[in-house]
Amino acid sequence: MAPNLLILVASHNRNLQLAESVLAAGAAAGLSTVLLDLTTLDLNLYTSRGESNGPGADFEQLHQAMAKAGGLWICAPEYNGGIPPSLTNAIAWLSRCAEDFRSLFNGKPVALSTHSGGGGQKILSAMRLQLSHLGCTVLGRELLSHSQKPANPDTITAMVAQMKHLME
């Protein structure tokens, strides 16, 4: 069975709609796709003091989805010029609790996208920097949308095709 494309969405509303468009495009391209909405997961807020309390009830679901993924597509809004807390928190718990943390990211192809109230370029740059640091292979092409610039379906299709190629 071919590895699946895990679509992580770090906010509801427009980014969830964007993730659902990616999900449909992935299915149309013959990819096995899974959407995981980080805002629905029961994950404790990561702090060094709270680490002893554990990650929360849904950590294993997140960990298993990451372990099975052949590639990631992240849909996240810009929060105050940076990465939204739901995504930062998920990565923090994975880095502290997953014994296979490096293998969850090393060499994994990643596509970045956003629907943001602001410009959106800062979140794309911040995610690219962090995910590259974690060892991911981040696509050069990215998808930026906002209220004045809807997501381009042709861009989604092209990025899905590139992800499919990288996951083979």
Structure notes:
With 168 residues, the protein is α/β, with parallel strands linked by helices. The chain has one domain (4-167): Rossmann fold (3-Layer(aba) Sandwich), CATH 3.40.50. Helix content is 42%, strand content 18%. Strands 1, 2, 3, 4, 5 and 6 form a six-stranded parallel beta sheet that branches. Helix 1 (14-28) links the parallel strand 1 and strand 2 (33-37). Helix 1 (14-28) packs across helix 6 (153-167). The model has no long low-confidence stretch (mean pLDDT 96).
Quickly list its features.
168 residues, 6 helices, alpha/beta, six-stranded parallel beta sheet
Can you summarize this structure?
The chain has 168 residues and is an alpha/beta fold. It has helices at residues 14-28, 59-68, 85-97, 101-105, 121-133, 153-167; strands at residues 4-9, 33-37, 69-75, 109-115, 137-138, 143-145.
Radius of gyration: 15 Å
Number of DSSP-assigned strands: 6
The CATH architecture assignment turns out to be 3-Layer(aba) Sandwich
The SSE string, one letter per element, is EHEHEHHEHEEH
CATH homologous superfamily title: Flavodoxin domain
Percent helix range:
40-55%
| CATH topology title | Rossmann fold
Number of helices: 6
Tell me, rounded to a whole number, the average pLDDT. 96
Distance between the termini: 11 Å
